[in-house]
Design brief:
It is a single chain. This protein is mainly alpha-helical. 70% of the residues lie in helices and 2% in strands. The chain is built from 19 helices and two strands. It has a two-stranded antiparallel sheet with strand order 1-2. The protein is globular and about 70 Å long. The two termini are 29 Å apart. 53% of the residues are buried.
Length: 518
Amino acid sequence: MLKKVNSKNHKQQYIGLFTSLTILISAVVGIGIFFKNKTILTMNKNNGWGVLISWIIAGIIALTTALAFVETISVDKKHSGVGLAGWAAKICGHKIGRFILISLPLFYFLFKTVNTSFFTSESIFLIANNTSNSDINQFPMWSILLVAFGVILFFLIVNNLSTVAAKGISWLATMAESIPLLSIGIIGIVIGALSNWQGNYFNDSPGPLSLTTPSTVGILASLPSILFSFDSFLAIGNAAKSMKEPEKTIPKAIIIGMPIIVVAYLSVCIGQLILGAPDVYKFFDIISDKYHINYMILRKVVGVIILMCLLGSINAFALTTIRIFNTSIEQETIFGSIAMKKMCNGKKILQPGFVYSLILCTIIAAIMAIPSLLANTDAIYDLLSSLLTLFYFGIYGLVILFTLINHFTNRVEVNKQKWFVPVAIIAIIGCFFSLGYNLLYAQTIKPFFDHGASWGMFAKHDGVTNPVVSLCCVVGYFIIFLAIPFANDLWIKCVWKSHKHPLIWEKVSSDYYKNNVL
């Protein structure tokens, strides 16, 4: 809920626990859960038990990663208010903290907002699709891109003008997406029982739920792909400035929200596997065939489910993007902060973070539109969404590793948790394995053995098939990820002579963070 706090000059609205919980769930729950099983089944050679074990292990890794941050978040109230960058600065040191401080707004949330708006646009066209195909190739790519920009504009405006309206959208989206998440599992189990458990992925011979031997290699290979469905659980941390007590609210939201998401994901996974459906489209296709329900009606239902999940995600990303840019501009840590302050000074209707977000989202959307139009594919968006998660699971693992070291060295005072050490070890292994497996093999070398990479969601996704092109894209994105913080500070050093904060390559004293955040 939102809490109003009186001050001498105004009433400020704060985000409370319930709203924080809905933002966390909305940010995490996207459309990956509905489509990932097709890839995971291939990795596990259609062994349902292997797929289920993969999701359970990945859920444990994601849950432990989130829970490990409960100790990290407790560094102190001042740093809790800055989110991941503030926690990292206190725990890991200035360089890592500043890298995250710049990278989060200028890379992660900026590209997440643009990407999610594009997939939201695609989901709108999916509902308008009256053909039997699940793709949207009948619509020109320029129209999808145009609607995507409209989605960005709408949600940025809503979150700029009214926290109450943004809160309402977050609540509605969370409630709407919770129904299909929980019901698909129930429907799959019920129909499976009525069909004597035939036709599901748990069987390799006639009979109810035969126990087959899953592949260890298949399970390990599946983990990084599944972890993409659990990303963005720290999005709420970057709205900490809008919370009255972020050091209490954020851990509570994580502790309550992440188990709910893990259970919901497992429910969908079990429902799909029992019904023998690799994705949500096949799930409803089977229901249509079994019970002679109008095929197109169920297709529309799928479209609405996908849209609800994406609306919740884009609203959460728009909210956190504006707020993290507001914080960055207030602290003068990103280029153009002074100019943005002057532009918005005295204009109550314009938050600096909103103007900055709108300008940069427009530029990034225009740049990404060029290859999408030329190749007529959404592959570039699908690739980037996966890599964003990959890079930041590496960041999560690094911060947790430093927190684990601090747990024994006591360099920084934190509220120690009894269960932290085993949870942190599992999280670190899972995060670094995900990063290493993808960056060193799955996204770079494996496409050469597979004679191409398969990226794309709904629109034609044969635009990136050449393994050399795929490798160049992955390496290019990784270089951009590493270069943005340094480019930002180089710009500041050359243009902004009066900048007071130490830049990313500069040293700070051990006492610096006693009086400063970043």
